[in-house]
């Protein structure tokens, strides 16, 4: 007589070689995806960095205000800091790039004369 009740699933035996082939295929697929779309690691790394930077202030603000407001406040503070850095650094970068462009003909001439001398 057969018992009624939950049955155990039938195990599917997979050899070590098959497991290795499956893992190799998955690794090859991952490499192919990263090669086809190289921006994915950069976006993932940027996302991890933003999450890491925001985790401490969110935890701190969440003690005093609701978590959603703490996330918004932390994000706005981060955005304000980035805009302030851009406001301070962008004119400096533009002036340095302008000086480089102005000096480029003289640098090219010096390089040409240096190569002609040797």
Automatic annotation (TrEMBL):
Record bears the keyword Transmembrane: yes
Source organism superkingdom: Bacteria
Record keywords: Membrane, Transmembrane, Transmembrane helix
Transmembrane segments: 21-37, 43-62, 69-90
Record's protein name: AI-2E family transporter
Organism: Microvirga aerilata
């Amino acid at each position: 007589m057969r018992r009624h009740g939950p049955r155990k699933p039938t195990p599917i035996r997979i050899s070590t070689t098959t497991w290795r082939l499956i893992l190799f295929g998955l690794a090859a697929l991952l490499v192919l995806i990263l090669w086809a779309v190289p921006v994915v690691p950069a976006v993932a790394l940027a996302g991890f960095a933003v999450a890491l930077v925001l985790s401490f202030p969110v935890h701190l603000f969440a003690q005093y205000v609701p978590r959603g407001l703490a996330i918004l406040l932390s994000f706005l503070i981060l955005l304000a800091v980035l805009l302030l850095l851009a406001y301070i650094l962008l004119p400096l970068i533009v002036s340095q790039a302008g000086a480089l462009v102005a000096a480029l003909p003289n640098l090219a001439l010096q390089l040409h004369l240096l190569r002609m001398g040797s």
